[in-house]
């Protein structure tokens, strides 16, 4: 099938585990802005997000890869939605977490199994900004970060506290604006109505993770070793940024912008600026998605 490319039609991914209600903020003019995040955030050599260059040469060299989703990963599930002051974050009920995982094939994803932990979003105040990763120096309105940890660890926290550069796998999805609502967002937006203030939390039902990804059965992914994009910016993330866009309507995105942050201001522009790539390589894959029976 035809691969609709991101850099033609639009589109792309991000992460925010770590501190939930810390003093950090995204405004460069404030004392709590990105330059003040400290330690690894400022000194690290493998920081995220980064700009991803996409061109014919890169795509022609893309290796084929497979990505398996467990059966529960593609099911509609109960979830918990939280406004942590920095983002809106969805996590699954604890008893459903361990059976919702993805796994690479053909040497993809370091041949590890990655357990789903949480999903959160980064978005802007207008359509020209919002994503953390940029593509050929262009930003898009929103980026979703599907955060997973390697099954070699017992928890997300244990994985973050390791020094393993592949401890976490974060799938980044870029959302571009569409005229029609994306029905996959409905469970989140229904729960979002209960979450105006920082610290608010609510329960939701029928969240389907796979439906929030681009619809294609194959897409381009860009992998590199990077970091969490919030303090303490631990360099433990195998990033998988999807190069094909998924969709959200303008009115759906507005519902995210209407949420309030810890200072009772609109929660928006919660994206970190791109970081130096340094010596890192970004590997392009033409990835085939496979839903597992198990
Ligand atoms: Zn994020």
From TrEMBL:
Translocase recorded as keyword: no
A molecular function (GO) term: carbonate dehydratase activity
Residue ranges occupied by any Alpha-carbonic anhydrase domain in the UniProt entry: 22-286
Keyword Zinc: no
Signal peptide span: 1-20
Keywords: Signal
InterPro entries from the UniProt entry: CA_dom, Carbonic_anhydrase_a-class
Catalytic activity annotation: hydrogencarbonate + H(+) = CO2 + H2O
Highest rank taxon of the organism: Eukaryota
Family: Belongs to the alpha-carbonic anhydrase family.
Protein name as catalogued: Alpha-carbonic anhydrase domain-containing protein
Organism: Allacma fusca
């Amino acid at each position: 099938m035809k691969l609709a490319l991101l850099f033609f039609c639009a589109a792309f991914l991000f992460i925010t585990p770590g501190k939930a209600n810390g003093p950090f903020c995204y405004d460069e003019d404030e004392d709590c802005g990105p330059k003040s995040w400290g330690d690894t955030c400022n000194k690290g050599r493998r920081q995220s997000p980064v700009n991803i260059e996409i061109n014919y040469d890169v795509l022609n060299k893309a290796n084929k890869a497979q990505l398996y989703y467990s059966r529960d990963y593609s099911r509609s599930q109960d979830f918990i939605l939280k406004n942590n002051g920095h983002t809106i974050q969805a996590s699954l009920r604890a008893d459903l977490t361990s059976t919702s995982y993805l796994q690479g094939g053909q040497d993809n994803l370091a041949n590890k199994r990655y357990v789903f932990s949480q999903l959160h979003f980064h978005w802007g105040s207008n359509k020209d900004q919002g994503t953390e990763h940029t593509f050929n120096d262009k930003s898009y309105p929103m980026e979703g970060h599907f955060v997973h940890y390697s099954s070699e660890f017992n928890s997300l926290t244990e994985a973050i506290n390791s020094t393993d550069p592949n401890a976490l796998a974060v799938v980044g999805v870029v959302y571009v604006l569409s005229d029609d609502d994306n029905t996959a967002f409905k469970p989140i937006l229904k729960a979002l109505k209960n979450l105006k203030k920082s610290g608010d939390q609510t329960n939701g039902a029928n969240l389907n993770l796979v439906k929030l990804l681009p619809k294609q059965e194959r897409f381009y992914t860009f992998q590199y070793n990077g970091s969490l994009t919030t303090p303490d910016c631990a360099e433990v993330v195998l990033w998988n940024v999807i190069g094909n866009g998924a969709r959200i309507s303008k009115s759906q995105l507005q519902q995210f912008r209407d949420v309030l942050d810890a200072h009772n201001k609109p929660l928006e522009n919660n994206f970190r600026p791109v970081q130096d790539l340094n010596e890192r390589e970004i590997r392009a894959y033409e990835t085939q998605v496979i839903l597992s029976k198990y």
